[in-house]
Design goal:
Length: 573
């Protein structure tokens, strides 16, 4: 039987990271639920065994249901009938399988019917689901929205809606509009308070809404009359049972075809306020988007995994000139770089997930009791790390997914252009990852301040110390020397750009500086992984550090030869 968990041993390695002990103890409140729920863990070992067992179930469902359905779902797609979405038959089967396995509320507390999993094992499930079918991940993974409802909804809303999500109902986040894509402060869907019915009414149009006919929606709408910026926006909960929203159409997309991307028409739809007025964009959407971006990072890693496995299998099977094409150096080099990129983005994905777990759990505990001084310091530290690593993880995960699927097609040659092969679908599915939930360019905007303030450089020093503390550091001295030199070049590039005190120059160089930072960070993480599990990561560490070294050298050469007066050359009339 195919199983995406047991076939990807890198997942179990990342699940057993040392920080998980602290994460689990905090998440489980020292295992306070063990006497209330028969499925709650008794201790750390019991919790880790539970994660392992559930991830094994996810891997089996991916291998036996979601993966085999992917081609049919891509072909059939969803349909719009009488203002409602009808999923492809395979999608219905996928939803049924994940619902029966209680996988629809993995990160939610047990009192709502969830599994109370930390972010790390949940993201591992998203990684696998994305590898099986990236389009279905867009449906199953929208349970992310429940986290925002949990953080900002009142207790009554949590009990009414989160219990439904954990029971298997789907969610969506209705943010973008025809004239408000990345510029969400331009949202104009109107929210007015109905005094007679004591509820809010929503009117307007939303566009590009993933899973737009979901059961429960989080909606960004303009609640303050006469405003035109983000301060006039609030977050609302719309329940499909109340009616008032129709699907005008389903977009005809390049990829992720099993996921219905909808245009929605709100006609006096009844809704309720989530959290406080005027904080919809400023606070709630930012939290929602950070969770979504981590999910897309996982989607990128899953797609990269699928692309590598398809390319590897084909290269071993396909014979030309009397031998398998994997024996040709040109093909072998492509495959080794694909694997290294996959392992590198998986390393930063789970590093980010651990940071997110730590700060979110401590933030949640702070609502129950006062944090100790040590806990407050932890919360502050990991909040900053999560905020700085999320855009790197999303940007590099999605960009490498696009590169890996491109190379997967290339390994297949002419066959890769044909729909008979999975790689054609995977290639189409990958393209959106660097666009939605914040383009790569927007991730650079989010990350650049951590470049210029030295936050990434400080973390690189932390990784140097981690390597020095490991017993086999001498075996990897060649790679660590390269990483130190890369870090020094990054520092030089930052100094050159910031000393110019030219904002336009900084904006122009931001992508290069962010990519250099990401390459250094992922290089260090892979070397640390290789030192701990050489059987899994030694080859990737050697390949990736050399690949990253060349990328850093390319950027430093460009920056070194760039002068302030060249900025004008990049302005187009």
């Amino acid at each position: 039987m195919a199983n995406y968990y047991t076939e990807t041993p890198e997942l179990k390695y990342h699940l057993n990271h040392p920080l998980m002990k602290r994460i689990v103890e905090l998440k489980e409140r020292d295992y306070a639920d063990k006497d209330k729920y028969d499925y709650a863990p008794q201790n750390f070992e019991d919790a880790m065994d539970n994660y392992d067992r559930v991830l094994d179930i996810v891997g089996e469902i991916c291998g036996e249901v979601i993966g085999p359905n992917a081609e049919g779902v891509d072909h059939d797609g969803p349909k719009c009938e009488n203002g409602r979405v009808q999923y492809a038959p395979g999608t219905d089967q996928n939803i049924d399988a994940t619902r029966k396995a209680s996988l629809m509320g993995m990160a939610m507390a047990r009192r709502f019917g969830g599994l109370n999993f930390p972010i790390v094992p949940y993201i591992m499930a998203a990684d696998m689901v994305s590898s099986a079918d990236a389009g279905f991940e867009n449906l199953w993974g929208l349970q992310d929205c429940a986290e925002t409802l949990y953080e900002f909804g009142n207790e009554d809303q949590k009990m009414r809606f989160l219990t439904r999500v954990c029971a298997g109902e789907t969610m969506s986040m209705d943010l973008t509009e025809p004239d408000a894509g990345s510029d969400l402060q331009s949202v104009m869907l109107k929210a007015t308070f109905d005094e007679k019915e004591n509820c809010w009414r929503l009117n307007g149009v939303k566009r590009f809404i993933t899973n737009g006919d979901a059961d429960i929606h989080l909606v960004l709408a303009r609640s303050e009359e006469g405003t035109h910026d983000g301060r006039g926006l609030s977050m609302f909960i719309y329940d499909k049972r109340q009616g008032g929203v129709d699907v005008r159409r389903i977009e005809n997309k390049m990829g992720i075809k099993g996921s219905p991307t909808c245009e929605l028409v709100y006609k006096n739809a009844k809704a309720e306020l989530c959290g406080d007025r005027k904080l919809g964009l400023i606070k709630y959407v930012m939290a929602l988007m950070n969770g979504a971006r981590l999910g897309i990072a996982a989607q990128g890693v899953g797609i990269s995994t699928a692309a590598y496995k398809e390319a590897l299998a084909y290269a071993k099977d396909r014979k030309q000139f009397g031998k398998a094409i994997i024996e040709f150096p040109a093909v072998a080099e492509m495959l080794s770089v694909m694997k290294a990129k996959t392992d590198a983005t998986r390393a930063i994905l789970y590093e980010t997930a651990r940071f997110v777990d730590m700060y979110k759990i401590l933030d949640d505990i702070s609502k129950e009791r006062k944090l100790t001084p040590e806990e407050r310091a932890e919360q502050k530290k990991y909040a900053k790390l999560a905020d700085s690593f999320t855009p790197l993880s999303k940007a590099m995960g999605s960009e490498f997914a696009n590169q890996n699927t491109y190379d997967c097609i290339q390994v297949h040659g002419g066959s890769g252009f044909m729909k008979e092969y999975k790689c054609e679908r995977i290639y189409r599915d990958a393209r959106i990852t660097s666009i939605y939930e914040g383009t790569t360019q927007l991730q650079v905007v989010a990350a650049i301040r951590y470049v210029t303030t030295g936050a990434y450089l400080a973390q690189l020093e932390e990784y140097e110390q981690q390597i020095a503390a490991l017993g086999n550091a001498a075996e990897y001295s060649n790679l660590t020397a390269k990483l130190k030199e890369m870090s020094n070049k990054l520092r030089m590039a930052i100094d050159k750009i910031t000393e110019a005190k030219n904002q336009e120059l900084l904006d122009l160089m931001a992508r290069r500086l962010v990519e250099m930072s990401a390459h250094c960070i992922m290089g260090y993480l892979l070397v640390i992984d290789a030192m701990k599990a050489p059987e899994l990561f030694a080859k990737s560490a050697n390949v990736y550090v050399r690949y990253a070294e060349a990328e850093v050298e390319k950027h430093i050469t460009f920056i070194g030869k760039f002068a302030d007066e060249n900025v004008a050359d990049y302005r187009q009339a």
